[in-house]
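User: Show me sequence and structure for the first protein, then do the same for the second.

Assistant: Starting with the first protein.
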Amino acid sequence: MTENPLALRILRYALLDPIDDARDILRRLQNNEAFQHYLRKRALRALPLVVGIVLTSLASCAAAVFFSLRGTLLALVAMVLVAPIVLVASFSVQAYVLLSWLEGRSLAKLQEHRRPRHRGPIGQWLARRYRIDMGPLPRVPWIPALVFFLLPAAMLAKVATQFAAGLAVFQIVAAIFYARRDPVSGVDHSPARGGVDAPMSFVVTLLRKVRLHKPAGDLDFASHAARPGTGTRTWRLRSFVQSVSRFLRFLVELCLLNLLPFVEYCVLVAGIYSIVEGRRSATERDVALGMLLVGIALLLAGLASIVTKRMSFRFYRSARTSYAGATALITGMMQVIVGGLAVATAHALATHVWQARLDALLTNPWPLLIPLGLLVIGAGLLLVRRSSSYVGPLGTVLFILPKTLTGIAVLGAGASILVGWAWNIYDPQAFLSFVRLVPDEDMKLLANWWSAAIALLR
């Protein structure tokens, strides 16, 4: 069977070529020491550009989630699942464009003394009038940029116009600041207007600061011809390894370990916002949507805590080891229970049977008492569990002992609920005979308390 050449060309142009280009630029960043030297010397100047990329990626992802609140429930759930992909892809596209721009500027600096670069009319006007040299244009993967940057940016402009305009101005100002502080070459080969001398050529500065054995080899970033002197080779290698390790650690913290808490907070905040708007406008559909989002956030957080044994809703820097392990496992189970209750509430509100379910709980409270008993048991286990930090004898008497006794009492209350439910199923008559032993005043007080709690849910 013959393959469609048009489809293959489209696939290569839209997906395969950008991936190959990204791998090539990362390979050049890893192997070429001249490019590494260029980036190390200008790390502080490029910091605003990196901050702008991170803020734009986070804002575009959040805007896509909030924009989907206006659509159907299926579209919202799909957007919540796609949001992490949008975040990582948007950051990757912007980082690729930034690295491509910096690489073009560094290559133009090295080539300036051999072949002067010709600017367009706008570039000449900016260079002569404001001494701003933007350098060669970067390579842009247009299809990924359209899908993962321009479209989320349009959603951000629709949701928060002023914030989007502020981000755009910030990135433009950061790029102009970098270009002005680090010109590619002289403004012109003659003095500039107004009697201001042209900036010194980059090659003169480079030859003063860096010793190069073969200047001609620097023109090819993929070659190994550009190497520093042998006396500083060990120091430069160690510095490069440290820079790469710091960058990889930052990337892992930002895109992996902090991505899941970011999604959890986005979904939770969107759910709370929808509930508040639904209560204010008396719209049951918005309240149901908000409860569904809150339930999804809690279920996602609980499952993540159970699988990773790390506390959910915590970013990497704030994840203390004392909260990991059994504590995270118990908390994750409790979050799964609360998330399941929230999803069940959303289903009852969407199907317009919420009031009927509440009336049924007045006569049969067990469907709600069972998850409440499990939550009480989880809270008791957290109270009973000892912390790893040493508090001393006074802390044991004033803190550990009361906490442990309270945890034992809470465990007993939760276990009593589950035992009562099992006894009611096994022998209802014996259970009713035991309930009649409770004084009527106490039973009436419990009934009034339960009715008041159900009334709060209406």
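Switching to the second protein now.
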Amino acid sequence: MVFLADGMVPVDPALGLRERAQSFIRSRRWTTSSIHYGDQAEPEISQRRPSWSITFGLGLVHVPKTTADWFADVLEIIEFLQPFAREHRCEFILEFRLSSRPWYSETLDYITDAPGAAVDIAHVRAMLQRLIRGKPSWWQRLVARYKGPVTLD
């Protein structure tokens, strides 16, 4: 399970963003060791103007077993990217992905450069909590349906 913030930016990350992002990651005590930043040029996409894709990835596998405030990590990433999106007129998609199924993703929200736009933090938290919990097994659904022992009277 992974929280991703992906975006296309119009400035070369080597001109300061990469160092700021790496410094941001080093400066915080995360609830997981699975925190990553990556960027790359996108020459196929950027025919009118140069573009680069950047990604922050935060592992969430530890969440069901932790009492730490894991959502504070998600908030930190959002708060790091919001000023950048406004400054460089770009947007980031916030999504949940399963490591076991790379094709599967759930869009949580967007960070945009629109004036007054804000990420719906309560929605992102609720979605992540629901997705991390996962679907109950057939056995859990059966027990929940009958809510108690089954007797044969």
